[in-house]
């Protein structure tokens, strides 16, 4: 499969058993799912080992589970698919998966307890090391939105300061790099890291730790509620997060991975999902430095599985029976057009930037202004929906020597100018 300048993939949700498939691992089922994915012309998958299944005791990483992960990666490679692996699951589709050695009688903080952190580092290193010689292994993500364990609305959060969160992330990313040097090791947060000034995981963490910046774009965060399914801001949300992340990056060329984006009903009605996908992807492709897009998700969740939030059941590109939806066709079409060169990427430099002030650059206590409904969010959306192509620059960095020039920014506009 030829590679486009931007990668297109999907977050792999096994059709049989969802992520519980690790308990009854069947490689033939995985192969069939990967055949579906490859049929769309996608080039990678992101996969999710369940932490308590792989590391049921602090000093035990199950060899058989690691072998199954390696077999999965090899099966993907046979179909031309590269694989990114998330380690600490952690949190998936409203369910938490924590090993018994950090809960109840063994309750320990997963971010700050020294024994827990060292066990996490060993676990991630073991997975990375087992895959280090696989040519289609992209790298490790520390875990899926593990920041959600650190504060509200989690019912039993593991409290951590921003400084401690930064140390934790750096330690675990370093463990992955030591075990599999040169791969794209990173971490991910859900968008509260960009939008809530009280959250200990910050934009600086996202944009400065790891090989690239991951953003997760979900329009049920108030964007679709405020602007509607067909509103310009709804289709621009992913692009906004990509551009927002660059305001904190120290390297202007730091790649950004749109690691999760999906079409959640009813916020995006099923009949509009394909149009939403195309609009979202075209807007994201207009951002320089986009490494790739990984749609959420590959297959619908079976209705035989209970207690998922309603929107989680229907997010797949494929139905439970393995039939591609119109949504799958939309994603596949954009990937093909980019691969064939009929969609030109990367985009030209964005020469105008909106100046935003989230307070202190590292802790960003005023992140609420960046959130849907916030003055910075709405100002950027007015510029972008009016035909502009705004970047974002932090107020504290406007005067930083070389910062604007290094990003190709020639003009800055303040929020107050747009009111």
Automatic annotation (TrEMBL):
<protein>
    <submittedName>
        <fullName>Glycosyl hydrolase</fullName>
    </submittedName>
</protein>
<keyword id="KW-0378">Hydrolase</keyword>
<dbReference type="InterPro" id="IPR017853">
    <property type="entry name" value="GH"/>
</dbReference>
<dbReference type="GO" id="GO:0016787">
    <property type="term" value="F:hydrolase activity"/>
</dbReference>
